[in-house]
């Protein structure tokens, strides 16, 4: 076993658990890859991260689907749109620097965080019902926009998905978490469709990390089901604050 895996496997396990519970595991896994594999290309690290993560997404998606009634008519459309959006985002990534979008993302994330923070009842009640044609069209737009963001910029996709499923479709945090896994699976699949043919995946790292991610996802999904909405809300706020701090630091660091 490569010595790097002694560090990457526990990181992948923790990231898989966080991803399954609320999203945002990339905040742990991606910096870990950069630290352990400093000479690798960013695209290689992205491909390795996506392949390892998709194992966990599939595991948590199956866990939730077996235990909850999910709006599959909405989710398959949103996931397909996210796949197309992510392909567009990945293609544009090499033409336009993602730093141009970072200030906009910071503002949107700050608004999302404040909205959730000052509305304690947000996401606590599940108003799941039959999805209307208008909501199906909304899901397509949401899926494409989130997919594009994930392909173009990346960090925080799970958190944005969680918030939007609660806000736009009136799900509680638990159902929104389960739905986010399906759409996030689509965005990861699109990124891999672009990165695998170009050889941007370290399989000897990604496969073992994927197995660790499966174990972490099983734990994270169980904790989410057991902890319920209040627990997920608190974890969501912690991750949103962490992501906001990371993006702000990356924006101001060149000026210091």
From TrEMBL:
What name is this protein filed under?
Answer: Probable membrane transporter protein
Primary site of residence:
membrane
**InterPro entries annotated for this entry?**
TM_pro_TauE-like (IPR002781), TSUP (IPR052017)
Tell me how this protein sits in the membrane.
Multi-pass membrane protein
For this UniProt record, the keywords arranged alphabetically read as follows: Cell membrane, Membrane, Transmembrane, Transmembrane helix, Transport
Q: Where in the cell is it found?
A: Cell membrane
Transmembrane ranges, per UniProt, are 74-96, 103-122, 142-166, 178-196, 202-224, 231-249
The secretion signal range is none
Recorded hits in PANTHER family, A to Z, give:
MEMBRANE TRANSPORTER PROTEIN YFCA-RELATED (PTHR30269:SF0), TRANSMEMBRANE PROTEIN YFCA (PTHR30269)
Can you tell me which family this protein belongs to?
Belongs to the 4-toluene sulfonate uptake permease (TSUP) (TC 2.A.102) family.
Could you confirm whether the keyword ATP-binding appears in this record?
no
